[in-house]
Design a protein that fits this description.
Blueprint (H helix, E strand, L loop, with lengths): L4 E7 L2 H10 L3 E2 L8 E5 L4 E7 H5 L16 E5 L3 H13 L3 E2 L5 E2 L3 E3 L2 E2 L5 E7 L1 H11 L1
Parallel strand pairs: 1-4, 5-10
Antiparallel strand pairs: 2-3, 3-4, 6-9, 7-8, 8-10, 9-10
Length: about 140
């Protein structure tokens, strides 16, 4: 069995968040979804578990942070091209998130943009040209 990652996120409006995650390319797994949770599959090994704040609190001993007020983590998403980075960022903005919550970064061999979901969780879609990185790395040796 492959190692998998389940990212559990507290959300204020489950229906809004579910539509947002569908808009950025996730597929809802009905088997693990109900009125308190949406299981949003990103890939064969990564799933975003969207949980109502009340339900999320049953799993956490600490107070739940509000992602609009503070950042606890950045979620990076690899993409296969610059165009895919642009597409997911624009889709996020159109689906009720905030596109480019910080300035895009273009380092030639790597391209990163950012967006927030409706609750303020920060994502960084990124593309990297590994061949260009290898050449750059050789030049620095």
């Amino acid at each position: 069995m492959p190692k998998m990652i389940f990212i559990n996120l507290p959300v204020s409006n489950l229906a809004v968040s579910t539509r947002f995650y569908e808009a950025i390319g996730c597929e809802k797994n009905e088997q693990f979804s109900d009125k308190k949770a949406s299981s949003m599959v990103w890939s064969d090994t990564i799933t975003f578990q969207l949980l109502t704040r009340d339900y999320f609190s049953t799993f956490a001993a600490k107070p739940i942070a509000t992602a609009r007020d503070a950042v606890a983590m950045l979620i990076s998403l690899s993409r296969d091209s610059r165009e895919e980075v642009d597409a997911i960022t624009e889709a996020a903005g159109a689906a009720g998130g905030k596109a480019d919550c910080r300035a895009p970064q273009d380092m030639g061999f790597m391209y990163i943009r950012s967006f927030e979901d409706p609750d303020g969780h920060v994502f960084e879609p990124a593309w990297m040209d590994m061949q260009a990185l290898a050449v750059t790395g050789e030049d620095q040796a």
